Amino acid sequence: MEQKVIISNKAGIHARPASMLVQAATKFKSKIKLTAKGKTVDAKSILMIMSMGLVNGTEVVISAEGDDADKAVTTLKDLVNSKFGEE
Amino acid sequence: MPEVLRGKGVISGIAIGKILLVGQNIDGYLADYKPESKDAELAKVEKALQAVTEILQKNVKTLQERDMPEQAAIMEAHRMMAQDPMMEDSMKSKVEEFGSAPRAVLAAAEESAAMFERMDDAYFRERAVDIRDVCKRIAKYILGVKEPELGAAAVILCGNEIEPSVIANIPTEKIAGVILGQGSTTCHAVIIAKARAIATVVGLGERVDIIKDGDSVLLDGETGEIIISPTEDMITSYKEKMQKQSEIKAYYAKLAPLPAETTDGVRVELMANIGTHMDVESALAYGCEGVGLFRSEFVFMGRQNIPTEEDQFKTYKEAVEKCNGNLCVIRTMDIGGDKPLAYLEIPKEENPFLGWRAIRISLQRRDLFMPQLKAILRAGVYGKAAIMLPMVINVAEIKQVKELIEQAKIELAHEEKAFSNNVQLGIMVETPAAAVMAPMLAKHVDFFSIGTNDLVQYTLAVDRVNHNVSYLYNHFNPAVLNLIQTTIKAARDNGIWAGMCGEMASDPYAAVILMAMGINELSMSAPSIPKVKDKIRSVTFTKAKATLDAIMKMEDGDAIKEYLYKSL
């Protein structure tokens, strides 16, 4: 299960959105990964997510493997699309 | 056995209490650390990660309860770093390499931090600070360095340097004293301690490491004496000294409700310099008639991003309200390259005191300045607020700010937020340029406040922390006195008020001279108010005026000082 999403909040994935992503990801049992700019990282690691430098406009592929994979991918995708409650 | 150390006493008072180490330097602990087996070290890493995670969780909860959502979000990010799977793996593999848990933690932090520092985006580069911060906490836990956790009894804070945010966040009644290894008396930690009248000794240098966490210590902020594990006799004799000090305090307390008025009826307003809104209450107890300088830097420091208009509004509103209808002068951000902030992105400067700082930053960084202006205008609804601009050198800067204030009002009106139209606008006169140009600047503002710390430094070209030249630093230097007189005269000629918020204002001898020059207001750290008031109440204006006439004819600053000590 995987889906593409574009980072649309102005500030990109700084500490707060990154922590929101991790918070959401850790609720699922599935292995969840984010892929962008040719790199794939564990979506449950705030450092790995932040180290990708996801600025506004970056395309990210969210993928998951496990029992709740579908729900995990949709949840994270919705979160990115909600702009984390920012501008 | 008691051990006696001597530093420089900067804020008088006697404190007896247990030491709480809040220093940032853990090298000593690292050197003393004896690692055990690899398995034991691995277990220590796991235990520390869990413990720090719990502490951070508590921090997040407290910050949320205190309605500080932004700081809570940052602590939440820190918590996640402590629980990060990549971080844990990296730390564990470093244990294999170094054999020592704390070293492994710090090495893993360095590696991750370095990765962030190589990134293109400035925001991400600065996250290196967070990673180091979290990992230092973890390493401290393993090393047994205590977090500044507060019990019921007041403690003596001790460290080589103490971050201003650490002191700012601890309630006054929990701090009995402060001990610093470094020697500056103008660092922010000292300024906050001064505003709160906390006995403070600085300049111990490396000897600060002799003092250990939990030591019983007796500290004399006047003599600079620090006694570790004092005997009963010592405590008794110091308690007697404390008794005498409290008698003086009682005398000063009686002065609090009385005006600062000469025996022949000339009055000066005495106001307080404060660092946080929490300082207003203690300042009122010293008999201040409002706040002459609210340093807004602390609103900007100790955080990861620009404080929002809402955060600032709450702080200013509280300060303005607590002034009970007296004026509360809020100085806009006065920060430069000497204390860089992550989100300010100030490049390294050769000469930060002549560089991009204070109003110069505010005028270029509207994202920083507009929320501050709007927050002050809104706070003005709750009492009497004033905006004061630091480091002004020309009329153009004032004009630009006036335009921005108009714009801020339009925005506030659109946002349907209440604001005051009666917020005064004034400038700090702290550059020779502003003092010389005072007659012109006076036409554009509601008041002047002379900032002597910088005015003396800039006028005499003397860095007062440089031991080789600090003897030249003297606020009675005739060049300085002339600039001050020009400034006060310009204010009076143009019908605006003139005040002073530099350290000179807390010198009772200077206060008399300034009053003779026609100053309307003196603002100082609150504990200095009684002694200045006592002096003013002991002289006549006629005498002050005659003394002023005499010293303005003198050529030498040291001679002036001597003359004043003798004749007043």
TrEMBL record, chain A:
Q: What is this protein called?
A: Phosphocarrier protein HPr
UniProt-annotated location(s): Cytoplasm
CDD domains noted in UniProt: PTS-HPr_like
SUPFAM superfamilies recorded for this chain?
HPr-like
Q: Name one Pfam family in it.
A: PTS-HPr
> What are the UniProt keywords, alphabetically?
Cytoplasm, Phosphotransferase system
Checking PROSITE patterns in the record gives: PTS_HPR_DOM (PS51350), PTS_HPR_HIS (PS00369), PTS_HPR_SER (PS00589)
- What Gene Ontology cellular-component terms does the record carry? cytoplasm
In which domain of life is the source organism classified? Bacteria
- Residue ranges the record marks as coiled coil: none
Q: Which InterPro entries match?
A: HPr, HPr-like, HPr-like_sf, PTS_HPr_His_P_site, PTS_HPr_Ser_P_site
Its primary localisation, in coarse terms, equals cytoplasm
Q: Which NCBIfam families match?
A: PTS_HPr_family (TIGR01003)
Function, please? General (non sugar-specific) component of the phosphoenolpyruvate-dependent sugar phosphotransferase system (sugar PTS). This major carbohydrate active-transport system catalyzes the phosphorylation of incoming sugar substrates concomitantly with their translocation across the cell membrane. The phosphoryl group from phosphoenolpyruvate (PEP) is transferred to the phosphoryl carrier protein HPr by enzyme I. Phospho-HPr then transfers it to the PTS EIIA domain.
Residue stretches making up the HPr domain:
1-87
One GO process term, biological-process aspect:
phosphoenolpyruvate-dependent sugar phosphotransferase system
UniProt keyword annotation of Cytoplasm present: yes
TrEMBL record, chain B:
Chain ranges of the PEP-utilising enzyme C-terminal domain? 252-539
What UniProt keywords are attached to this protein's entry?
A: Cytoplasm, Kinase, Magnesium, Metal-binding, Phosphotransferase system, Sugar transport, Transferase, Transport
Query: Which GO BP terms sit in this record?
Result: phosphoenolpyruvate-dependent sugar phosphotransferase system
Q: Name one GO cellular component term.
A: cytoplasm
EC number(s) stated in the UniProt entry for this protein: 2.7.3.9
State a single Gene Ontology molecular function: kinase activity
Out of the domains of life, which is the source? Bacteria
Q: Identify the cofactor(s).
A: Mg(2+)
Q: Does the keyword Kinase apply?
A: yes
One protein family per Pfam: PEP-utilizers
User: Where in or outside the cell?
Assistant: Cytoplasm
Which InterPro entries has this protein been placed in?
Answer: PEP-util_enz_mobile_dom, PEP-utilizing_PTS_enzyme, PEP_util_C, PEP_util_CS, Phosphohistidine_dom_sf, PTS_EI, PTS_EI-like, PTS_EIN
Instruction: Please classify the protein's predominant subcellular localization into one broad category.
Output: cytoplasm
- Looking at its record, which EC class is this enzyme? transferase
Active site annotation, chain numbering: 188 (tele-phosphohistidine intermediate), 501 (proton donor)
Phosphotransferase system enzyme I N-terminal domain sequence ranges: 6-127
Query: Residues that bind phosphoenolpyruvate, according to the entry?
Result: 295, 331, 453-454, 464
Q: Where is the PEP-utilising enzyme mobile domain?
A: 154-224
Catalyses which reaction?
Answer: L-histidyl-[protein] + phosphoenolpyruvate = N(pros)-phospho-L-histidyl-[protein] + pyruvate
Residue positions annotated to bind Mg(2+) are: 430, 454
What protein family does this chain belong to? Belongs to the PEP-utilizing enzyme family.
- Please describe what this protein does: General (non sugar-specific) component of the phosphoenolpyruvate-dependent sugar phosphotransferase system (sugar PTS). This major carbohydrate active-transport system catalyzes the phosphorylation of incoming sugar substrates concomitantly with their translocation across the cell membrane. Enzyme I transfers the phosphoryl group from phosphoenolpyruvate (PEP) to the phosphoryl carrier protein (HPr).
Protein's recorded name? Phosphoenolpyruvate-protein phosphotransferase
